[in-house]
């Protein structure tokens, strides 16, 4: 079985669908800090499969132990974590505690149960503000906010773990801006409260919840002075996680 942490979130829910449709058996874990319980019913409606779900937090080691004790977990796809850059600047300790300490708890339990295959959801924020674009994988790493720093710390922990024990098979995925939704329309980006990403804002303007869309910045080195972002469709990204998992399991 494959454990998906943060499996009711935006990327996690789409990855859960891809995993189920590819024939994998999964366990979903989430604390609903930035997702909603009805996502589980939507995943079930898309796939036609019953789900194994635990409402649990990475900061609760006994809850993690319970999942690994009750299921034959072979690998983990790790999405769970706080992800708002602005909030991380205002509350850095919250981000380091939740993201870094939570991941350490997960790794300790994995190690105890001999589960040494992990796909980690990192972020392009680990590159900070590169001097040139496009960004290449081997560019210098220089996170400029606590969210990016928390991801970079976890990357270092994973690399140290592999050096100490090469039986750990790890994939770190640094991605940019996921966008889009499953073709069914049943799952997509549906965050709590004020959105952090572009598409939920556009949807709120389209539905009349917000009067207009703010465009920030007018002095970027672009034809019209506004910012440019790289986007990847969330289903393509989810399939990338599936391929990464299959690679380390081979």
Please explain how this structure is put together.
The protein is 41% helix and 13% strand. It is of the alpha/beta class and 250 residues long. The protein has one domain (2-179, 231-249): NAD(P)-binding Rossmann-like Domain (Rossmann fold), CATH 3.40.50. The strands form two sheets. Strands 3-2-1-4-5-6 form a six-stranded parallel β-sheet, with helices on both faces. Strand 5, helix 6 (146-164) and strand 6 form a beta-alpha-beta unit. Helix 1 (10-21) runs parallel beside helix 2 (38-47), helix 1 (10-21) packs across helix 8 (234-249) and helix 5 packs parallel to helix 6. The longest helix has 21 residues, at 92-112. The mean pLDDT is 94.
Major beta sheet, strand line-up: 3-2-1-4-5-6
Count of alpha/pi helices: 8
User: What general form does the structure show?
Assistant: globular
Helix fraction?
40-55%
Domain count: the total is 1
CATH superfamily: NAD(P)-binding Rossmann-like Domain
Looking at how many chains there are and whether they match, the oligomeric state comes to single chain
Order of helices and strands: EHEHEHEHHEHEEHEH
Distance between the termini: 15 Å
| Total strand segments | 8
Structural class: alpha/beta
Q: How much strand?
A: 5-15%
Name given to the CATH architecture: 3-Layer(aba) Sandwich
Low-pLDDT residue intervals, each spanning 5 or more residues: none
- Rg from Cα: 18 Å
Largest sheet: 6 strands, parallel
CATH topology: Rossmann fold
What is the residue-mean pLDDT, rounded to a whole number? 94
Q: State the name of the first-level CATH class.
A: Alpha Beta
């Amino acid at each position: 079985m494959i454990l998906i942490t943060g499996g009711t979130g935006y990327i996690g829910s789409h990855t859960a669908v891809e995993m189920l449709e590819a024939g994998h058996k999964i366990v979903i874990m989430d604390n609903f800090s930035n997702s909603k319980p009805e996502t589980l019913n939507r995943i079930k409606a898309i796939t036609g499969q019953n789900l194994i779900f635990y409402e649990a937090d990475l900061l609760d080691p006994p809850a993690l132990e319970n999942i690994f004790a009750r299921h034959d977990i072979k690998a983990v796809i790790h999405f769970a974590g706080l992800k708002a850059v602005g909030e991380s600047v205002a509350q850095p300790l919250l981000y380091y505690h939740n993201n870094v300490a939570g991941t350490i708890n997960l790794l300790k339990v994995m190690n105890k149960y001999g589960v040494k295959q992990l796909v980690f959801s990192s972020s392009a924020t680990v590159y900070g503000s590169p001097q040139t674009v496009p960004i290449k994988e081997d560019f210098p790493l220089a996170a400029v906010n606590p969210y990016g720093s928390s991801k970079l710390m976890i990357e270092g922990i994973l690399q140290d773990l592999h050096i100490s024990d090469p039986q750990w098979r790890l994939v770190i995925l640094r991605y940019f801006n996921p966008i889009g939704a499953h073709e069914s329309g049943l799952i997509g980006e549906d965050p709590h409260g004020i959105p952090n990403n572009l598409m939920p804002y556009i949807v709120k303007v389209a539905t009349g919840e917000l009067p207009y869309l703010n465009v920030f910045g007018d002095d970027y080195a672009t034809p019209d002075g506004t910012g440019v972002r790289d986007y990847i469709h969330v289903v393509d990204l989810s399939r990338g996680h599936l391929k990464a998992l299959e690679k380390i399991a081979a």
